[in-house]
Amino acid sequence: MSTALVIILIVVIVALVALLLMWTRARSGRQVRQRRVESRARGAEADRRFERAGEMQADADRQAAEARRQAEEAERRAQAAGDERAAAQAQEQRAREVDPDR
């Protein structure tokens, strides 16, 4: 009887070891799948942030272009005002030459 008991114990131990290995592999597989899901989520978040950064950069570029355009327009207006002032002074000078009492 003791030989049968030893064989039964060995079979039970081998079965337990086999179950332990299967459980460990299943757990490892779940962890790998979970890491994969988390990695995809991080990748999707990174893609969204990258896209948003691109949109923000494009918006900043548009604003910079608009600011340059406005600065150029202000410079043109200042030049036109200076030219008009010079023309007014010249006209005033000619008027004084024509009518010194003025």
State Rg: 43 Å
What summary fits the major beta sheet?
none
Distance between the termini: 142 Å
Total number of helices: 1
**Unreliable residue runs:** none
Structural class: mainly alpha
Helix content: over 70%
The proportion of strand residues reads under 5%
From N to C, what is the helix and strand string?
H
Number of strands: 0
**What is the residue-mean pLDDT, rounded to a whole number?**
93
Apparent shape = rod-shaped
Q: Can you lay out the helices and strands and say which pair or pack?
A:
Layout lengths: L1 H97 L4
Report on the structure:
With 102 residues, the chain is mainly α. The chain has one helix and no strands. The chain has one helix spanning 2-98.
Please provide a brief summary of the model.
With 102 residues, the chain is an all-alpha fold. It is built from one helix and no strands. The radius of gyration is 43 Å and the shape is rod-shaped.
List keywords for this structure.
rod-shaped, 1 helix, 102 residues, mainly alpha
